[in-house]
C-alpha cells in the first residue's frame, strides 16, 4: 500500500524545544507560521494537520492505554493513527 503513495511535500518540520528556549508558545507560533494558520482558534485541527501534509488514520487500539501514535516514513508524510 505504501508503494502506491506518491512522495509529498510536507510542511511539518522537527521543532527542537531547546532552540526556542523551552517556550512552547514560540514553537506554536512557528508551527502556525509554517502551516499558514492565522491567529485565533483552530476550527478543525484534523484539517490543519492534513493540510500540513500528515496522513491521519482512525484506528481502534482495543486498549484505553493508547489514544494515538505516529509513524514517520522517511520519504513521505508522517502517519498519525488516532483512536476513533
Summarize the structure.
The protein is of the alpha+beta class and 84 residues long. Helix content is 23%, strand content 19%.
Give the end-to-end Cα distance, rounded to a whole number of Å.
22 Å
SSE-based structural type: alpha+beta
Main β-sheet, spatial strand arrangement: 1-3-2
From the alpha carbons, calculate the radius of gyration and give it in angstroms.
15 Å
Give the helix/strand layout.
Elements: H1 24-35, H2 45-51, E1 55-59, E2 68-72, E3 78-83
Parallel strand pairs: 1-3
Antiparallel strand pairs: 2-3
Please describe what this structure looks like.
This protein is of the alpha+beta class. It has two helices and three strands; from the N terminus they run H-H-E-E-E. The protein has one domain (2-83). It is 23% helix and 19% strand. The two termini are 22 Å apart.
